[in-house]
Each structure stands twice: as C-alpha cells, then as structure tokens.
Amino acid sequence: MTANQRAFLKAYRKIGEIAATAKAISLDRTQHFAWMHSSEAYRAAFEKELKIFDALGTVRVLDEVDRRAYDGWDEETTVEEAELVDKKGKVTLVPKKIKRTKVHRFSIPALLWKANYRHGDPRHLKVELTDPDGRNPLTAALEEIWAKRTEKK
C-alpha cells in the first residue's frame, strides 16, 4: 500500500466518513473509490477499518452512556419566582423575578440500560482486529476508557 492509502485509513479510523477523511488529508474523495476498485490490498484494509470503526463506535457509545448515567451534565435553566396577590378576593400569580441557574442532571434511561447491560463492563467485547503495526486498537481504546472510569471511583 502507498503512504497516501495508509494515511487515508489512519484518518478514516478517527473520522469515519469518506469525504471528510479525504478533505482532512487533502485528497479528492474519488481517490478512495479508485483505490477500492484497483487495489485488493487497499480494499481488504479498508474493510478491516470499517469493522474497527464500528467496534470503536460501540465503545464510544458505551462510554457516553456511562457519562450520562454516572457523571451527568450541567444544564442551564430558568427559574421563575412568583408571589400570590389577593386582589379583591381574586388570587393572582404575579411574576416577581426570573433567574437563570444551573441544574446537574443524570440520565435515568442510561442508568436503567446499564443495569441490564451484561456485566456493566464493555471489556467483554472481543474483536480480533489489528492495525498495520500488529496492535489491536479496540483493546487499547477499551483499556483507556476503563482506566478513566476506575480513576473516578
């Protein structure tokens, strides 16, 4: 494979979209399709990258579910204070002041999903893929995410 082909595959793993990947490494997107048509080695490597990208996407989704379920997020909201005013026997709600505040929220659906998720540990995902250097990128990504998660506890 050529240096441009290897660069495209490496960038595709992070970006996951052909046109954006080609633009990021200053190639015309049609070059990818030409390589797919003319190079069996490139086509096999690209199909492997598709599997890696899908597996890493699963890991990213699991990490985001964990973040929403356990860490939560801050959200700005408006709180309206009001007072009840009695005007000749009629009670009226009169706005007193409006203030903006932050609320920390958690995702209950994400927590419930995690409770039903097998072992609650995504490391059970086994994908036998290697990059050109012989490393398994999914294993490295899982270990990095797991290390971050266990540091927080």
Describe the model.
Strands 1-2 form a two-stranded antiparallel ribbon. Helix 4 (40-71) crosses helix 5. It folds into two domains: 3-72 and 107-152, no CATH class; 74-106, no CATH class. The chain has six helices and two strands; from the N terminus they run ααααββαα. The model is unreliable at 123-127 (pLDDT under 50). The chain is elongated and about 85 Å long. With 153 residues, the chain is of the alpha+beta class. The protein has helices at 3-15, 18-24, 30-38, 40-71, 108-116, 137-152; strands spanning 73-87, 90-105. Helices cover 56% and strands 20% of the residues.
Secondary structure elements and their pairing?
Elements: H1 3-15, H2 18-24, H3 30-38, H4 40-71, E1 73-87, E2 90-105, H5 108-116, H6 137-152
Based on the model shown, name its key terms.
6 helices; elongated; alpha+beta; 2 domains; 153 residues; 2 strands
Report a brief summary of the structure:
The protein is of the alpha+beta class and 153 residues long. Helices cover 56% and strands 20% of the residues. A two-stranded antiparallel ribbon has the order 1-2.
